[in-house]
Automatic annotation (TrEMBL):
Signal peptide: none annotated. This is Di-/tripeptide transporter. Its main location: membrane. Residues 222-231 have a biased composition (Low complexity).
Length: 661
């Protein structure tokens, strides 16, 4: 498809194509953040997962979402071109989001697969297209990426509000509300696809005006004039830097080879000795293979181009540290907002999803100010180097977690007590709720520090449930898989625990149970047993005194919830850090990467998010097993170490970047 001629009415300041990409990305991010706002809460509240299991799903999904752009960037560079890749990706993600609207788990996991693959095609290529609308050295480039990033965050702000409202208000049961929210995310993705198809001509017009049309057309590797030829890369004809920077550029590819060998061996050893599951080997091996691939790729790049490319990979490490902490927003911080934070904040009732909209709102407010600041400093010859901006980001994300440590300390200081004659023999308090239970035989009081969340209640009750009763609940679940209003199914319990009270007779069970006969121990269901209903049935089989103590403790412990202002302040500091690293980081890649590896290296830099999501999600599996103060402190320590290391590397990095700021 040929580009239309340049238009005389192109808006002053930025080309019209930037706004086409702005709205395309805005709706794509609406779909992503709408789904992300609901994902962990859906797993915990509706599917009744434990935090360890929900974090496992979260880490696999989010890490793969940021890993597949590497493949998508490669395919775009070699075969498809970024424009076609964007269209393919948007279509696949639209399908995935709509599949999320269906309840059965096979649909759920298939939907995640479509979203992962679609994002791989979409994400690196739309960012590359932004860079191609500007010539090298264009002072508007950083500002363009900041504006583009505002589009991301308008979508990210609207998504939790809309999808969260649907979750809270639509449908006769919680599951239906979640699925309405997932469907809304799908609608957003379709909007993004339509806008991109309509506005392609404006994007191509801007790319042509910048002289970069050849860079977005799929190349024939055998063509003598292909940009894949080293002779077409002027930076490779210039000698690289000297001193410490030169040592780093020469050694770095071999360091990648060493890590690509040692990291998988470590995880294979842990799996072979039974210290970890074999599934935990998959991603480290994948990251190692990619690291080795990038090491070989760096060896094919020469001179100044090698120096600049090395910077991308060097700053990759610090990007991982930043996003590892920042992306707790969708997991641990989302759980914190749901269970440990007051719903009433600043005079408003805020659900957990609404808190996830706060970072995006902050960016909408502050992104123009940061863009003006970067531009004003550049005009005065005081432009802040990219490495210094990333250092500021690492410091700020550490400060945001200091705030959360303070919030968690406040929550942990509240102790709730109830009377209990004794702890059941089957219960080991030190293994429950991160060790925050305690029992005083002298006063016969069971106490808990902080909030006792529903998933912790489930864990506490389950040890006292008779195994014979648990098997009957499993049999009930299997028997009513095909239950429907027109096909009710009756199930008879063989026996019930002493003091048993059937739990599914309230409004929450409407549309599920049509009849319960306590004397005959018979229940008639008109729908399959949901995870929530199953959890209530299991809990009803716990020892009565223990169940009453735990449920009473959970109710009273709500007084330990802390102000949402802690979370809002933490997000504010994190956003200031994000504005120092994210749009600047994307722009950096477009300025430093060789032309023939533009989309590939963009995919590599975005892969820092894949590593961060996987490591951060793995840490998230400890939620509920260690106290929140210790959990948030992990990210304070990692940020502090990263900040010191990056401070020492400031001068070598500037030399490796040469004329690029």
């Amino acid at each position: 498809m040929s580009a239309p001629p340049a238009s005389a009415d192109t808006p002053k300041g930025h080309p019209r194509g930037l706004y086409v990409l702005f709205f395309t990305e805005m709706w794509e991010r609406f779909s992503y953040y709408g789904m992300r706002a609901l994902l962990v809460l859906y797993l915990l509240n509706y599917l009744q997962f434990q935090p360890e299991d929900s974090s496992a799903v979260y880490k696999w999904y989010t890490s793969l979402v940021y890993l597949t752009p590497l493949l998508g960037g490669f395919l775009a560079d070699r075969f498809l071109g970024p424009r076609v890749a964007i269209i393919i990706g948007a279509a696949l993600m639209s399908i995935g989001h709509f599949l999320m609207a269906f309840e059965p788990l096979p649909f759920f996991y298939t939907a995640l697969a479509f979203l992962v693959v679609g994002n791989g095609f979409f994400k690196p290529n739309i960012s590359t297209m932004v860079g191609k609308m500007y010539t090298q050295g264009d002072a508007r480039r950083d500002g363009a990426f900041t504006i583009f990033y505002m589009g991301i965050n308008i979508g990210a702000f609207l998504a939790p509000v809309v999808c969260g409202w649907l979750r809270q208000n639509m449908g006769s049961n919680p599951g239906m509300g979640f699925h309405y929210g997932f469907a809304a995310a799908g609608v957003g993705m379709v909007f993004g696809l339509v806008i991109f198809l309509w506005g392609q001509k404006y994007v191509l017009q801007a790319v042509t005006a910048a002289g970069n049309l050849g860079d977005i057309i799929p190349r024939q590797p055998s063509s003598p004039s292909s940009p894949a030829s080293p002779a077409m890369e002027p930076d490779e004809q210039r000698p690289g830097t000297e001193g410490v920077g030169a040592v780093i550029a020469r050694v770095f590819p071999y360091l990648l080879f060493v890590l690509a060998t040692l990291v998988p061996l470590r995880f294979i050893y842990l799996a072979a000795t039974g210290q970890a599951q074999w599934t935990n080997v998959i991603m480290p091996v994948a990251f190692a293979v990619i690291g080795a691939w990038m090491g070989f790729t760096l060896l094919t790049v020469k001179g100044v181009a090698r120096d600049k490319s090395t910077v991308i990979f060097l700053l990759f490490t610090f990007s991982v540290l930043f996003w590892m902490a920042y992306e707790q927003a969708g997991n641990a911080l989302n759980v914190w907002a749901e269970y440990n934070t007051h719903r009433s904040t600043l005079g408003m009732e805020l659900s957990a999803e609404y808190f996830q909209g706060a970072p995006a709102l902050y960016i909408i407010i502050f992104a123009p100010l940061f863009a003006m600041m970067w531009t004003a400093l550049a005009r005065r010859g005081r432009e802040i180097p990219t490495a210094a901006k990333i250092l500021a980001a690492v410091v700020l994300i550490g400060a945001s977690d200091v705030v959360m440590v303070a919030a968690a300390t406040s929550e942990d200081a509240t102790v709730t007590k109830v009377s209990l004659a004794g702890v059941p023999q089957q219960v080991k308090l030190e293994e429950l709720n991160a060790g925050r239970f305690s029992y005083d035989p002298a006063t016969q009081e069971l106490s808990v520090r902080g909030v006792l969340a529903p998933f912790a209640v489930t864990n506490a009750l389950k040890p006292t449930v008779d195994q014979a009763y648990l098997k009957q609940v499993e049999a009930l679940e299997a028997a009513v898989e095909t239950a429907a209003p027109e096909h009710p199914i009756t199930f008879t319990f063989e026996s019930l625990p002493p003091g048993y009270i059937f739990p599914l007779t309230d409004k929450q069970a409407e549309g599920l149970v049509s009849q319960w006969d306590a004397e005959a121990r018979k229940v008639t269901l008109v729908a399959p047993l949901s995870a929530v209903a199953k959890a209530r049935l299991v809990g009803a089989g716990a020892q009565p005194e223990w169940r009453q103590a735990i449920t009473s403790l959970a109710d009273k412990s709500q007084a330990a919830r802390v102000s949402g202002l802690w979370l809002l302040l933490s997000y504010l500091l994190a956003v200031f850090g994000e504005l120092c690293i994210s749009p600047v980081g994307l722009s950096m890649v477009t300025k430093l990467a060789p032309v023939r590896f533009a989309s590939l290296f963009m995919g590599v830099f975005l892969m820092s998010n894949a590593v961060a999501q996987y490591v951060g999600g793995s840490l998230g599996e400890m939620w509920g097993r260690i106290v929140p103060t210790q959990y948030f402190a992990i990210f304070v320590y990692t940020s502090a170490v990263g900040a010191v290391a990056l401070l020492l590397l400031q001068r070598p990095i500037r030399k490796l970047m040469h004329e690029v700021k």
